[in-house]
Specification:
DNA-binding; mainly alpha; 6 helices; 3-stranded antiparallel β-sheet; homodimer; elongated; about 55% helix
Chain lengths: ~160, ~160
DNA sequence: CCTTGAGTTGAAGTGAACTTCAACTTGCAG
DNA sequence: CTGCAAGTTGAAGTTCACTTCAACTCAAGG
């Protein structure tokens, strides 16, 4: 596709593009990981006449997105799906972004609520000065899981 | 006689204990995972005379803690360390809990902040109606990463 | 032109977190 | 007692997310 384009040697296209080493340094992601992401279709790279990758600055943003999303517990496959919803050949429309953002906002809100729950339970353990978990808020957290129905499964990143 | 001989004091062991299948059903965690957790020292089980596991209700709470912590991105090894700080043979003291909780509170607060940042960046993309990422808040998120110093690495659970 | 560091590939290796398998035993209902 | 679902073990297999390796090529300074 458009991005398979090969830049002519010594073309001014070099301006604003990065080698894989530069992108690795700037993003904090290993070059091997960047190649891996490319194989999975998460990022794209142009090529020099000598077959070396050249990244546009925009890829830095994608990589940042990927790493942050990973910390939230999203799999690379899910991240790819999200990034795929951004059209590659044209500028994303407001609708494209609204769709992607809405989906992720819910996901992130859920996640924040879950972590706050865990945090508050732990804090409660300090606050109430309980010496055993028997009557602790953490115990109730466990019960809440059971209350989510038979075979209830936490939404784990898998 | 009965198979309860393994339990101390001839206590009414059957009361309040669960089989691995029951714990799996109640916690939503596969039996194979529970055995795995036991091998790693995250949970403990008593045994019947016939060598079958019997779990006390307290283990349900531990399992819930494990699964929630996992969603926060904590490795099983780290969870084990945390759980190990709870004395097994005696009732945890307030100090035990304060220590564990303080450590985790920070971890969780960091995590919440990170996720909120990602969420707010995404929301910004809707709000500002930007049609490309060029000037989007998400782009700045990427820059912020770069600004964290040379070789900056996101704190990934690894 | 030569050297050298950076980049290329496919294949194989790694570690975490489990699951599956095979072969066997237990425990409870009837 | 019999039948059989549920439990036991160690070993091997799986998936994800990479990293490492070997064997090469490329790009740029001197």
């Amino acid at each position: 596709m458009t991005h398979a384009s090969v830049w002519p040697d010594g073309a001014p296209a070099a301006t604003g593009t990065m080698t894989i080493g530069q992108l690795a340094a700037r993003s904090g992601v290993a070059a091997s990981a960047l190649r891996y992401y490319e194989r999975l279709g998460l990022i794209r790279a142009g090529r020099t006449g000598g077959n070396q990758r050249r990244y546009e600055r925009a890829e830095l943003r994608r990589v940042a997105f990927i790493r942050i999303a990973q910390q939230v517990g999203v799999s690379l496959e899910e991240i790819r799906e999200a990034l795929d919803s951004l059209p590659e050949s044209r500028t994303p429309t407001a609708a494209d972004w609204a769709q992607l953002s809405a989906t992720w906002r819910n996901r992130l809100d859920e996640r924040i609520r879950l972590i706050e729950k865990l945090r508050d339970n732990l804090t409660g353990c300090i606050g109430c000065g309980c010496l055993s978990l028997q009557k602790c808020a953490l115990y109730n957290a466990g019960d809440a899981l059971g209350a989510e129905g038979p075979g209830a499964r936490l939404m784990l990143p898998r």
